[in-house]
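Hi P.,

Sorry for the delay on this. The queue was packed all week, but I finally got your sequence through. Input first:
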Amino acid sequence: MELITIFFILNATILLLHEIESAYEREWEILKLPGKIDGFVLLHIPIIILFFYGALEIEKLTYAGLLLGIITGAGGFIPFLVHRIFVVRKDRFHSRISNVLIYTNIITGIATLLLSIKLIIGI
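Then the structure:
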């Protein structure tokens, strides 16, 4: 298995774990997303499909896979940006597990992003 695939899977897994926590925290209310829980769940269908497809393609080092690696790697910064910079709530996303997810997502996101960029430049 390619190193980039390992980081991609770790990054996507941590992002999905954050999204599970986001359902618990009712993130659609925090971000004022339409559709409540139904819309929130439906929003994640294409994201999950892209994660699975990306894992398959990134292992083959295809352009599509590496592009999804860049997007997913950048996505590793989104929980931090949203919950620590732009939409800070003292009572939400501050548990121990939330902090672990947010900060490890930055690490796996950086690794996925940098490896994807390095490999896509090499194509």
